[in-house]
Design brief:
Layout (H helix, E strand, L loop, with lengths): L2 E5 L5 E5 L4 H10 L6 E5 L5 H13 L2 E5 L2 E5 L7 E2 L1 H4 L9 H8 L1 E5 L12 H9 L3 E5 L2 E5 L7 E3 L5 H12 L4 E5 L5 H12 L3 E3 L5 E5 L8 E3 L4 H14 L2 E5 L7 H9 L3 E5 L2 E5 L9 E2 L11 H8 L5 E5 L9 H7 L3 E5 L2 E5 L8 E3 L3 H13 L3 E5 L2 H4 L5 H7 L3 E5 L1
Parallel strand pairs: 2-15, 3-14, 6-7, 10-11, 18-19, 22-23
Antiparallel strand pairs: 1-23, 1-24, 3-5, 4-5, 7-9, 8-9, 11-13, 12-13, 15-17, 16-17, 19-21, 20-21
Helix pairs in contact: 1-2, 1-7, 4-6, 5-6, 6-7, 8-10, 8-12, 10-12
The structure holds ligand EPZ.
C-alpha cells in the first residue's frame, strides 16, 4: 500500500491548475450509453474512479480510452447491459449506468452498490423514479434488474436532492416517451454540466441548476463532444491548503461562482479569497479564526469539503461547530486528526472543534476520499513529519496530488 510522507510547516505558494471534475466526468461517461457511436469528453482527470467507469463500459462491450485528459467512449459494440458486483463494489457511482441502460436497451442488471465508509448510501430514489417511469424493478442476488419496453415521462419528487439520483433520472428521461419533471432536484454544477452534455446529444432539458428540471424525451440521441467542468472540490481543497499553511496560491481553472459558500467561510476565518481572471487566489493570514459550518446540498457548504475545513479549524483561535447534515458517518477523519493533537468531540452529526495552536506530525490512516484530503492538509500544516497511509483513497479523487503540492513548495513524497 502506498503512503504519503509529508514534512509540515511550509507555506504553499505559487500556481496550481485544477483538473476536470470527477463528479462531472463519471455521469458524462455513463451518458455516452444513450447514443450509438463515439462520444468524446475533454478535461477528464486520470483518476481510479474514472478508469473504473471506463472498465465498466468495456465489459459491457463498449470501447473506452483515456489519453491526455481526453476520453473516447464508443458504445457501438455495447450488448451486455450488466454492471457486475466486482466493479460496482469498488465504485458506487457505477449506479449511474442504470438509467441510461434502462432508457436505451430497455433492460439493465446493476449490482446494488453497498454502503461505504461515509454512510449507507441507499438508491431508493433512483429506483422509485425508474419505477414511476414504467420500469419493472426486481432485486435478485444483490442485483437490481430493471426492465422496460420504453420508459415513459413521469412527475418525480425527491425527498432529498440526490445528486446521482437526479443525474440517473435525467439521463433516463432524455429517451423516455413524454415529459418528465424532477422536483427537489439536486442543483450542483455537475448537474448543469450533465444537462449541457445531454443537450449536446440532442436532449430537451430545461431548468438544470434549479430545483425543478423538465425533460422532454426524444426518440434518439447522438454522441457528444464535451469539455468537463473543472473540479470545484479539488479547487476548494487547494483553497484550504493556502489557508492552513499560511500560503498564497493562485488556483487556475477554478470557477469562483461554484465556490461561493467555501469562499465566504474561508474569508470568515481571515483568509483572503479573491476572484481573478485565471480563477481564484487564496492567501492565508496567520492563525485562522474559528467559524461554524453546516453542510448542505448545493449551493450550501459542500459535504465534500467538510473534512478539509475541519482540518483548518483544528488550528483556529477558538471553538467551531461542524454540522454534517448530508451523510450519517462522515467524521472518520476525526480520530486521525486527534492523533495529530487536534481537540475534537462529536455527537451524531455535530463535531465541536477546540482550536489548538499547532498540530504535531504523526502516522495517520486515510479512510475515505475526502478524509484523506483532510489528513494531507493537516500534515502540511503540522510541526514535523507525518505519514498518511492508504492513500489509494486520495487517488480516487485527486489527480497527482503530491506532484501539485510539491510544485507549491510542499515537502511531500509518495512511498511504497
Ligand atoms: C454525490 O454522491 C457525490 N458523488 C458525492 O461525492 C457527494 O458527497 C454527494 O453527491 C453529495 O454532494 C458523485 O457525484 C459521484 P446523494 P451521491 O445521492 O449522489 C441520501 C466524493 O467525495 N439518498 O446526493 O451518492 C444519501 O444517503 C463523493 O466525490 C437516499 O436516501 O449523494 C445521502 O444522505 C462522496 N436515497 C443524501 O441522500 C437515494 O436514493 C445525499 O446523497 C439517494 C440518496
Amino acid at each position: 500500500m502506498e503512503k504519503l510522507l509529508i514534512k509540515g510547516g511550509v507555506p504553499l505558494k505559487g500556481t496550481v491548475t485544477i483538473s476536470g471534475s470527477k463528479n462531472a466526468s463519471l455521469p458524462a461517461i455513463a451518458a455516452a450509453i444513450l447514443a450509438g457511436g463515439k462520444s468524446v469528453l475533454r478535461g477528464v482527470p486520470a483518476l481510479r474512479d474514472v478508469l473504473t467507469m471506463g472498465t465498466l463500459l468495456e465489459q459491457m462491450g463498449a470501447r473506452f480510452s483515456l489519453e491526455d485528459s481526453l476520453a473516447e467512449i464508443d458504445t457501438a459494440g455495447l450488448k451486455n447491459p450488466v454492471a457486475p458486483y466486482e466493479l460496482v463494489k469498488t465504485m458506487r457511482a457505477s449506479v449511474l449506468v442504470l438509467g441510461p441502460l434502462a432508457a436505451r436497451y430497455g433492460r439493465a442488471k446493476v449490482s446494488l452498490p453497498g454502503g461505504c465508509a461515509i454512510g449507507a448510501r441507499p438508491i431508493n430514489f433512483h429506483l422509485m423514479g425508474l419505477e414511476k417511469m414504467g420500469a419493472k424493478i426486481e432485486l435478485e442476488g444483490g442485483y437490481v434488474i430493471a426492465k422496460a419496453r420504453r420508459l415513459k415521462g413521469a412527475s418525480l419528487y425527491f425527498d432529498l436532492p440526490t445528486v446521482t439520483g437526479t443525474e440517473n433520472l435525467m439521463m433516463a428521461a432524455a429517451l423516455a416517451k413524454g415529459v418528465t419533471i424532477l422536483e427537489n432536484a439536486a442543483r450542483e454544477p455537475e448537474i448543469v454540466d450533465l444537462a449541457e452534455t445531454l443537450q449536446a446529444m440532442g436532449a430537451k432539458i430545461e431548468g438544470a441548476g434549479g430545483s425543478l428540471i423538465e425533460i422532454e424525451g426524444v426518440d434518439e440521441l447522438k454522441p457528444y463532444s464535451h469539455q468537463a467542468v473543472p473540479d470545484r472540490i479539488e479547487a476548494a481543497t487547494f483553497a484550504v491548503a493556502a489557508a492552513i499553511t499560511g500560503g498564497d496560491i493562485l488556483i487556475k481553472n477554478a470557477r469562483p461562482e461554484h465556490l461561493d459558500a467555501v469562499s465566504i467561510k474561508l474569508r470568515e476565518t481571515g483568509a483572503e479569497v479573491k476572484k481573478t481572471p485565471a480563477g481564484l487566489r487564496v492567501k492565508g493570514d496567520g492563525r485562522p479564526r474559528s467559524v461554524n459550518i453546516t453542510t448542505m446540498p448545493y449551493p450550501g457548504f459542500p459535504t465534500d469539503v467538510q473534512a478539509q475545513f475541519m482540518a483548518l479549524m483544528c488550528m483556529a483561535d477558538g471553538n467551531s461547530m461542524i454540522n454534517e447534515t448530508v451523510f450519517e458517518n462522515r467524521f472518520m477523519h476525526v480520530p486521525e486528526l486527534k492523533r495529530m493533537g487536534a481537540d475534537i468531540e462529536f455527537q451524531g452529526g455535530v463535531a465541536t472543534v477546540k482550536g489548538v495552536p499547532a498540530l504535531k506530525g504523526a502516522q495517520v490512516m486515510a479512510t475515505d476520499l475526502r478524509a484523506s484530503a483532510s489528513l494531507v492538509l493537516a500534515a502540511l500544516a503540522a510541526e514535523g513529519e507525518s505519514v498518511v497511509h492508504r492513500i489509494y483513497h486520495l487517488d480516487r479523487g485527486y489527480e497527482q496530488m503530491e506532484k501539485k503540492l510539491v510544485a507549491l513548495g510542499a515537502q511531500a513524497e509518495r512511498i511504497k
